[in-house]
Specification:
The chain has strands at about 5, 25, 30, 35, 45, 50, 55-60, 75-80, 90-95, 100, 105-110, 110-115, 115-120, 125-130, 140-150. The protein is mostly beta strands. The protein has 2 domains: about 1-50, no CATH class; about 55-150, Immunoglobulins (Immunoglobulin-like). A 4-stranded antiparallel sheet has the order 11-9-14-15, with no helix packed on it. A 3-stranded antiparallel sheet has the order 7-8-12, with no helix packed on it. Strands 1-2 form a two-stranded antiparallel sheet. The model has no long low-confidence stretch (mean pLDDT about 85).
């Protein structure tokens, strides 16, 4: 039985002396070897190989889903790897969206990043955060929707100027 993070079938019956694992995924990054065991047979261990964990999921969150037009707000970005733990590889995040300005790019190797963008117009908006493809790693992105509000200036008191 394998140890570490795996997904799929980890036990398989042999056919003509071969066991084929068609849906087995190794999710843990690092150096590993695989051991095959069979009842009444000698165990066999593979040579050691290195597994790379790729960025798999980007989640965006903000405490303010109704920001005011032309005002910065904080956008928190979480990148998870294939093992669903924080992605520790390097990821250069780019934000895109209609009428979006401010801090739109950043890099992380901790799986977490905060940026401070703002919208230049009101209405329903969506921000997309993307970690581009790198080597054999595919591009991954996530989205979050907002309702951008107009700035309202409320005057609570004023003093009238009188001329004499």
């Amino acid at each position: 039985m394998p140890s570490g993070s795996f997904s799929g079938t980890t036990v398989q019956t042999t056919s003509s002396g071969t066991a084929t694992f068609t849906n087995l995924r190794i999710l843990s990054a690092g150096s590993l070897s695989i051991q095959a065991t069979c009842t009444d047979m000698v165990s066999v261990t593979s040579i050691q190989t290195t597994i790379t964990n790729y960025a798999y999921q980007i989640t965006l969150s903000s405490t303010n889903l109704s920001p005011t037009v032309n005002f910065l707000f904080t956008l928190s970005i979480t990148i998870k790897g294939e093992d669903l733990a924080l992605f520790k590889g390097s990821c250069a995040i780019t934000l895109t969206g209609s009428n979006l300005a401010g801090a739109l790019t950043g890099s992380t190797s901790t799986g977490q990043l905060s940026l401070q963008p703002y919208f230049t117009t009101t209405g329903s908006k969506t921000i997309t955060a993307t970690c581009p493809a790198s080597g054999s790693s595919p591009s991954v992105s996530g989205q979050l929707s907002f309702t951008v509000l107009v700035q309202v200036l409320k005057i609570t008191s004023f003093t009238a100027v009188t001329f004499t």
